[in-house]
Write a structure and sequence with these properties.
The structure holds 2 protein chains of 2 kinds.
Chain A: E1 13-17, E2 20-28, E3 36-37, E4 41-48, E5 51-52, E6 58-62, E7 65-68, H1 69-72, E8 82-83, E9 89-94, E10 102-112, E11 120-130
Antiparallel strand pairs in A: 1-2, 2-9, 3-8, 4-5, 4-10, 6-7, 6-9, 10-11
Chain B: E1 3-9, H1 14-18, H2 24-33, E2 38-42, H3 43-46, H4 55-68, E3 71-76, H5 91-108, E4 112-115, H6 121-134, E5 137-142, H7 151-163, E6 168-172, H8 183-192, H9 196-207, H10 212-221, H11 226-235, H12 247-253, E7 259-264, E8 267-268, E9 271-272, H13 277-285, E10 290-297, H14 312-332
Parallel strand pairs in B: 1-2, 1-10, 2-3, 3-4, 4-5, 5-6, 7-10
Antiparallel strand pairs in B: 8-9
Helix pairs in contact in B: 5-6, 6-7, 8-11, 9-11, 13-14
The chains are: A mainly beta, B alpha/beta.
């Protein structure tokens, strides 16, 4: 039931800094009936217009903070930052020039680790309109 | 005779909350409109400041109580054993997390916590002094495929009895008394294209007590389709059913039960399609139970699957109506 909701229709856009486009972002919702600590994310794999996004260029914005995506996969990432149910987790892809305004096909694979069930894999593909 | 109050777990509104149709305030207002005065909140689902309860959130909860006359009575806790990548949390870490949940529940004014079986019997006993100090009762949820008499629950019962504490016990989920295949499981499988004869064969294997491994082989040999197999795995797992509800087991643990999850998927023609509510409520009615049965709607996907044509509010309304009717009949006897 959660798969088709993990990719939000809202807030897909280029990210601007000092008058330049330095990247773009999409918003994800958790693939579970409740929140989990961010450290329970096992993988976020993003594909835009058929091209896989390099994980090294991905950053997560949560509760006013930004983390390199690869940092949250590390063993020492804090366990108390909860990605809440229904809350949008913003994934920023750093890319000079951002993304062209308009429609793009985005697909995401989201894997989250649970305490009493195996890692759950959710997949979603949508055409999103980027601002 | 029992003192039974009816409430709702906000988990029932999961789909509406996820899709932004309902805010927390909407969920609470719906509880009032449905005629209950208490709700359960799953902390990891609807408390924005989780793992803590902020003063700001508490203020909201109090404001909603003032506006709608509905308050939180139970706190749904999760035992996040798998937070670390390289190892499971150890006992003292799990106990620490549970103590924090007890403090959260206390802050919200909840007298009951629904805990999960990942909190071991030993750890449940270890948190009893904190439960007593904060006057919050912590109950282990009995969820399918467990029933009150399964070995796991026997171990809890032994530990609880030995501890002598009145603040630890059980929260049975009425889904554990199911006597029929679940609507999603059976009708959902048919809708997807399962072969009915084969599906009935799977149901009968479960009814005859054939072991999971043996039944799996028999079905595969008979050429069961993937929809039947998927339904079959559920029948032997989280959506299992039994020929007889374990009401004897329930009677034995009743002194340690202070809260129920009124699980349901679908109430049709005044009956839950899988769980024998008249028998189960009669057993509770005849006990010394004092507390809430909170309606827990778990048919979030039934509408999208085309099995029903209404949402969570109507589902819960039907459930409460059924419970009220059964309780009124018991009253007359």
């Amino acid at each position: 039931m959660y798969d088709k909701h993990i990719l939000s229709d809202e807030g897909a856009r280029s990210v601007w800094e000092d008058g330049r486009k330095v990247g773009y972002c999409v918003n994800l919702k958790i693939n579970y009936y409740r929140g989990l600590p961010l450290c329970c994310v096992d993988e976020i794999a993003l594909t835009v217009d058929g091209e896989e996004v390099d994980p090294e260029t991905m950053y997560l914005q949560h509760n006013g903070r930004e983390y390199p995506y690869l940092d949250i996969l590390k063993d020492d990432f804090p366990t108390d930052f909860y990605w809440l149910f229904g809350e949008k987790l913003r994934v920023v892809v750093k890319k000079e020039g951002g993304i062209e305004q308009g429609r793009h096909t985005v697909s995401v694979v989201l894997k989250t680790r649970r305490s009493y069930t195996p890692t759950m894999v959710a997949e979603c593909e949508k055409v999103l309109t980027f601002a | 005779m029992a003192d039974i109050k009816l409430g709702i777990t906000l988990y029932s509104f999961t789909y509406e909350y996820l899709t932004g149709q309902y805010s927390l305030e909407d969920c609470v207002r719906k509880c009032a409109e449905l005629g209950v005065d208490g709700y359960e909140i799953v902390a990891t689902q609807m408390v924005p400041s989780y793992p803590y309860v902020s003063d700001e959130f508490l203020a909201k909860v109090l404001e909603f109580e003032y506006k709608y006359g509905v308050r939180p009575v139970s706190y749904g806790a999760n035992t996040d054993r798998g937070k670390l990548f390289e190892r499971d949390l150890n006992d003292s870490e799990l106990v620490n997390d549970t103590i924090r949940d007890i403090q959260n529940a206390h802050k919200l004014g909840c007298k009951v916590i629904r805990a999960q079986y990942l909190l071991s019997p030993e750890n449940l006993v270890a948190i009893a002094p904190y439960a007593e100090e904060y006057d919050v009762k912590v109950g282990i949820e009995i969820h399918n495929p467990e029933t009150p008499s399964t070995p796991v629950m026997e171990r809890y019962l032994e530990a609880i009895e030995k501890s002598g504490s009145k603040h630890i016990g059980f929260v049975p989920d009425l889904g554990c008394f199911a006597t029929k295949p679940n609507i999603k499981n059976y009708e959902g499988a048919l809708k997807k294209g399962a072969n009915q004869e084969m599906l009935d064969y799977a149901v009968n294997l479960k009814r005859q007590g054939v072991s999971r491994g043996e039944a799996e082989q028999l079905l595969k040999d008979a050429g069961a389709d993937p929809f039947v197999m998927s339904a079959f795995y559920d029948m032997y797992g989280y959506l299992t059913f039994h020929n007889e509800p374990d009401l004897e087991g329930l009677k034995r643990i009743m002194p340690y039960v202070f809260h129920f999850h009124g699980k349901f998927h679908c109430v049709r023609d005044g009956e839950e399609t899988a769980i024998p509510y008249p028998e189960v409520l009669a057993a509770i009615y005849d006990s010394d139970f004092s507390g809430y049965i909170v309606s827990e709607y778990e048919g979030h996907s039934l509408r999208a699957d085309g099995l029903i044509d209404y949402g969570a509010v109507e589902a819960v309304r039907r459930h409460l109506e059924m419970e009220n009717r059964i309780l009124a009949e018991l009253e007359k006897k």
